[in-house]
Amino acid sequence: MTDFLIVSTHSESEVAAKAQNRTARLAKTPIRRQFIGMKNETMNNNPDIGSPPPVWTRLQFEARAAAADEPTMASYIGAAILSHETLCSALSFHLAEKLAGPEMGAQQVRQIISAAYAEYPDLLSAAEHDIQATLERDPACRGVLQPFLFFKGFLALQTHRVANTLWRQGRETLAFQFQSRASEKFAVDIHPATQIGQGVMLDHATDITIGETAVIGDNCSIMQGVTLGGTGKETRDRHPKLGKGVLISVGAKVLGNIRIGDEAKVAAGSVVLKDVAPKCTVAGVPAKQVGGPSSAPARDMDQALPDPGADD
User: Fold this and answer.
1) For residue 222, what is the enclosing H or E element?
2) Are 193 and 169 in contact (CB under 8 A)?
3) Using an 8 Å Cβ cutoff, are 113 and 149 in contact?
4) Which residue ranges does the chain devote to CATH 2.160.10.10?
5) Confidence (pTM)
6) What share of the chain is helix, strand, coil (3-state, %, to 5)?
């Protein structure tokens, strides 16, 4: 086996001095402490931006710190966030850059998104709740910058919200175009007619499929590989209705015009064909109720199943 020797052009003292300077600089940057796990505590204790900071304020703060820390990304971060005065402007720009294609350029897509935000201000409120939900529930999320720039579940959901407004305006062809681009770019396929509440997290998001007449309540969490689909060729109301605070775990299939009650939990890999009562946990193929009541599963992201011998 050949040994490789990496030779530095700097002396040990120079390397040590540079490392010490970098450590001192980072120690003065609150956002770096947040990035390694302190999350809300750092931001809440920062007197410069208040406690707790609004999403846009926090996003700008994190963006400035990230741009300073990683110069190779500074131009991208500046264009996507720091060059804008509002969350509306930044989000419409960022989504347009992601969704642009041969059919429509970035500027045209951005105009459509900006018009939707102007006509439906609730879209921005929903985006703020969605990004906050991701920050609170995903242990891999280190701040609001990460989902805004990189999490395809968040980006796919915001794309759908715009597509849904287009659908409700009767602009079905354009709505389907947005759905198609989101499917291509993010591997998330949500029919533009689907009704989705706020504070929703699509975690990892790959291969999530949601049908036309599905309804998703506020504060739900949906994992990768989930299908909210139909059971046949029905043409009317044929997809699941999720209440508030529902957790649908990895790879679960919920099929048909059935009701999943508030704060219910569907275990990974389950196939649900019947109604699920509120605060119940179901698992299996076909899914059946297991254990006692669940409580805030979407918030806590607790995907464990009750021990069947716990009551013995």
Assistant:
1) strand 221-223
2) no
3) no
4) 194-305
5) 0.82
6) 45, 10, 40
